[in-house]
Amino acid sequence: MRRIFHTLLSGGLLLPLFLSGAEIIYVNNLIGSDDGDGSRERPYATLYKACREVPVSGRIEVADTGKPYQMPYKSADVSKSYGYRLLRGGTQEKPLIVEGNGATISGLAVVPAEAWNAVPGTMLHSLPFYPMSNRLKNDKTINHWLEVPRIWFVDGKAAPNCRDRETLLKMPGGFQWDKAEKMVYFHLPAGKRLEELRIELPANYGFYIHASHTIVRNFNCIFSVNDGFDADGSPQNSSYINCLAYDNCGQGFSCHRTSSMRYIGCGAIRCASSNVCNVNHSHAEYVDCVFLDNAFESNVSLYDEATARFVNCFLSGGSSDEPIVQEHASQLTFIHCVIQGNRELPLLRGRGGSVNFYQCTISQARYLSDFSPRWSAFCAAMEKSIIFNMKNAIAKLPVAPYPRIQFSDNRFSFPIYIYDGKAEKIGSPILQKLRIDVSSHCEDFYPDGLRKAEIFSGNGYGARKLSPVVKKIYDRLINFTATPAGLVLVAAE
Length: 493
Known about the structure:
By secondary structure, the protein is mainly β. Helices cover 8% and strands 34% of the residues.
């Protein structure tokens, strides 16, 4: 028998914050009703109702019942899907609070039988499906859904994900997403009727903060058809605290327009898009966060004029793109972060903004970045950082690195740069003249800790040990998997 854990409570990260004198709306999806008044005695059943009703500087108290909060199937159009939009905020003295208490929100919805269309002459049925997996949708080499995350479920169990129609025709109970047609196909098993089956797939999404002085905390989000925890408009001084995203079709976290956000003790894993993707003129700060194993795109990406600052964070995994992508005039800063990439890909791709590393521990990449292409004009700075386990070199340098590239006082296990097609060792006359890592050194490192990505004996260099908060988030992300019934311990799945 599978045991469902209330993972946020077991993680020990609940952060007490009480707002005296404000109206409190209660939500409970076991005993509540949206015909109630939101009181403790007559709670609402849906978080959607509470988000629409909460007043300025109010508070929503969500019961963690062990059952995911989810909404019904509404439309194949993502713009018409259900999500939890917070349009009213608070004040500096009385922020609006949404307290999750460890509850899980799910983007899955049960698709009614009448929404499917039979394909003549076959046992197949079709349904419009076009999730917010933007880079995947734009990749012309792929016309199917990914192996991860699993998003098709029948009667509570993961169903086969077929890459093409021929395979689907041989796979009763299987699904096939035809991206070009914007359709998902289901092979109805012989002797079954759609009305007899509970077919679930992502159709709804997570939170959007639209207003200033808003705090959302202690939630899990699973299977969002879009993103998990977003900001849009121009909210200022708003935060997500202790919020985790699992298996989303879109991003784990995303900021838009001129929003300014803080993410504290948050994490994301197995999203079909970037774990973090910020655009427009937004700004975000991530403290004690963990970003793991996204299935497509980069782990972290910034576009337009967006800025982001990562402090004491752990980034690891992902294989389809460089882990860090800086586009347009965006700016990224990493301080005391542990960053692990893929030895077959550069760690970083930049365009025209800037990327800065201070006291970071960086490993597992072909090289840090290729600064030589004509289309790449971004600036980079790195100081007091440790770089090890690079496959080919530290970086490929442009003809004139300085002042665009300012690397100094770092420690490397492999002290080679590529300049003008040749290998140059740290300290060589050419690198001295180019002002690249003049005060840096080479030494041996003995990785330890999470995924063997930490260096404990950096002597003032690198990120040192990751915090206990980061390690708790990491454990919760990798030890639990998302199911229609909620988050389940991996060993019990």
